[in-house]
Amino acid sequence: MKRFFILTAFIMLCMSSLPAQNQIAAERKVRFGIIVEGDTLPYYQLHEVKVVSSGSLLSDIEIKKNQKLIRNVKKMLPYAKIGKQRLDELERRIAGVSKKDRKAAIKAAEKDLLADFSDELKDCTISQGKVLLKLIDRETGRTSYVLVDELRGKLRAGFYQTFARLFGYNLKAQYDPKNNKEDNLIERIVLSVEYGRL
Questions:
Q1: Burial of 19 (0-12, 13-18, 19+ CB in 10 A)
Q2: Strand-strand pairing, 39-43 and 32-36
Q3: Cα distance between the two ends of the chain
């Protein structure tokens, strides 16, 4: 009787451990490894992580103090990023083509931009427009004046600059977060948005 009880207990114990073993076997995956001094170590490819000092992000006090600028940056940042993407596509398209084809491609790209965004951007305020010009410079590395000059010529760039000055804009204003306090604040707002702080 004692043997029967021990045998039954042993069988029940083994049966209860079987699902755990099956579960462990089901969770196994093939991993890459490297051999170091005779030991096999797992090798994992990690995603790139940007490390930003906490001083680069906005504090709670700065967030409360700069609500209007934060709202403007959050509204204009997607347009600047889309503008950068479209500019890169356009530059790839016009690289190495004739002057006539280049002009046609630039006019078509301008027409597409106006069709896609003119209604949305008409409702922007002057301060939002200034932020957009700064963000375009941040994304492309070139001022709006330089972009118009490169794509449409000096005459058109000069006309746009004169017209912009009437409304308080400066297409030649450079984005300089190291030396300009407002640009530094815009940069910190962008970083805070990109890292999920805002």
A1: exposed
A2: antiparallel
A3: 72
The whole-angstrom separation of Cα 191 and Cα 53 is 11
Alpha helices (H) along 141-170:
144-152, 154-166
- Measure the CA–CA gap between 173 and 144, rounded to whole angstroms: 8
Q: pLDDT 10s digit of each residue in the chain, 198 long?
A: 556 556 566 666 555 555 554 555 556 666 777 888 888 888 777 877 766 665 677 778 888 888 999 999 999 999 999 989 988 888 888 888 888 888 888 888 888 888 888 888 888 888 898 899 899 999 988 888 988 888 888 998 899 889 888 888 888 889 998 998 898 899 989 988 888 777
Q: What are 149's two structure tokens?
A: 């000059």
| β partners of residue 33 | 42
Instruction: State the CB neighbour count (10 A cutoff) for residue 146.
Output: 16
Residue 32's φ and ψ, nearest 5 degrees, are: -80, 150
SS3 32: strand
φ and ψ at residue 114, rounded to 5 degrees: -65, -40
Q: How many CB atoms lie within 10 A of CB 76?
A: 23
Residue 194 is encoded by which pair of tokens?
């990109």
Give pTM, 2 decimals: 0.69
**Residue at token pair 């970083």:** 191
- Can you tell me the distance from the alpha carbon of 57 to that of 198, in angstroms, rounded to the nearest whole number? 10
